[in-house]
From TrEMBL:
Its main location: cytoplasm. DNA binds at R287, R306, R311. It comes from Aeromicrobium phragmitis. This is Holliday junction branch migration complex subunit RuvB. The keyword Cytoplasm applies. Homohexamer. Forms an RuvA(8)-RuvB(12)-Holliday junction (HJ) complex. HJ DNA is sandwiched between 2 RuvA tetramers; dsDNA enters through RuvA and exits via RuvB. An RuvB hexamer assembles on each DNA strand where it exits the tetramer. Each RuvB hexamer is contacted by two RuvA subunits (via domain III) on 2 adjacent RuvB subunits; this complex drives branch migration. In the full resolvosome a probable DNA-RuvA(4)-RuvB(12)-RuvC(2) complex forms which resolves the HJ. HAMAP family: DNA_HJ_migration_RuvB.
Length: 331
């Protein structure tokens, strides 16, 4: 189970996305802060400060960007760092910006350096010089941009260079959700899907969702399939449990990738230390996938530790796999 949205999942996700700050479950502090930013700007008749949202995938960054545009009744433009590899790509986007627009840039840390520089000038001065041509013949064409708001999303704010980070007047760090919030998210999604579900079943799904609403919705979808085919459509606790077992999501919410990482770490590398790239190769995944999806969760559970020499498995990890840790063997 990856935390990135899969293509076939997009329409499903869109249907479940909260449309207002009130509908957003959890993240009370961020909600309150954002409401202030939006209300203050609206009262002043100005565009709000640029907003930076950081946090792991699936916690609601895109949702919040949509809500900001929605509450401002402003058009939303969506793009992403990987799509902006040249300053010219960004210049093209900026030249189409209207007054008050919200520009959402997902994975903003993955823009190229020249594009980054152009962006922070645009964010500060609402004016950039677009350089056309190369060498002595190059000319700078000034481009005026109406006031607009950038909402940037990144998995870690630390990945952004200081000058760009400083252009954001408001930064929100999204954190993993509490089980009670995930429970509410599952109940809310089930209601929207017109799926009949017991309270304890929703709680079970929420508690295996590793703090992530996207995963909660995804597990709910799998459980719904199971319930429809094998249980007459209603989800009770036993149905939820059986479905989650079938999809290899364990009681702590570990999925196949998480377990593969732990097994490689303990089995192939004796518990470490081992470099993240080596570990990623061992499980046949991209380094980024392991680093951004599996690792933060394993660290949070206290199963894996990052050390200067590499990743190591903690005694709790060995225990979870049902293995004896090397130190215990030696004793
Ligand atoms: P991100 O952009 O951080 O990867 P998204 O905004 O795409 O995450 O959210 C993923 C899914 O989780 C969406 O379907 C959204 O409906 C749901 N979701 C995220 N945050 C919340 C929340 N606070 N309350 C309810 N649903 C949420």
């Amino acid at each position: 189970v990856l935390a990135e949205a899969l293509p076939e999942e997009r329409a499903f996700e869109a249907a479940l996305r909260p449309k207002t700050l009130e509908e957003l479950v959890g993240q009370e502090r961020v909600r309150e802060q954002l409401a202030l930013v939006i209300d203050a700007a609206t009262a002043r008749g100005r565009t709000p400060d640029h907003v930076l949202l950081s946090g792991p995938p699936g916690l609601g960054k895109t949702t919040i960007a949509m809500i900001i545009a929605n509450q401002l009744t402003a058009p939303l433009r969506l793009t992403s760092g990987p799509a902006i590899q040249h300053a010219g790509d960004l210049a093209a986007i900026l030249s189409g910006i209207g007054e008050g627009d919200v520009l959402f840039i997902d994975e903003i840390h993955r823009m190229s350096r020249p594009a980054e520089e152009l962006l922070y000038m645009a964010m500060e001065d609402f004016r950039v010089d677009v350089v056309v041509g190369k060498g002595p013949g190059a000319t700078a064409i000034p481009l005026e941009i109406p006031p607009f708001t950038v909402v940037g999303a990144t998995t870690r704010a630390g990945l952004l260079p200081g000058p760009l980070r400083d252009r954001f007047g408001f930064t929100a760090q999204l954190d993993y959700y509490e089980p009670a919030d995930l429970h509410r998210i599952v109940l809310r999604s089930a209601r929207l899907l017109e799926l009949s579900i017991d309270d304890d079943a929703a709680r079970e799904i929420g508690s295996r969702s590793r703090g992530t609403p996207r995963i909660a919705n995804r597990l709910l979808r799998r459980v719904r399939d199971y319930a429809e085919v094998r249980a007459g459509g209603h989800v009770d606790h036993a149905v939820a449990q059986a479905a989650l077992e079938l999809y290899e999501v364990d009681q702590l919410g570990l999925d196949r990738l998480d377990r593969a990482v732990l097994q490689a770490l303990c089995g192939s590398f004796g518990g470490g230390p081992v470099g993240i790239s080596t570990l990623a190769v061992a499980v046949g995944e991209e380094r980024e996938t392991v680093e951004e999806l599996a690792e933060p969760f394993l660290v949070r559970l206290g199963f894996l530790a990052r050390t200067p020499r590499g990743r190591i498995a903690t005694p709790a990890a060995w225990q979870h796999l049902g293995l004896a840790a090397p130190s215990e063997v030696a004793q």
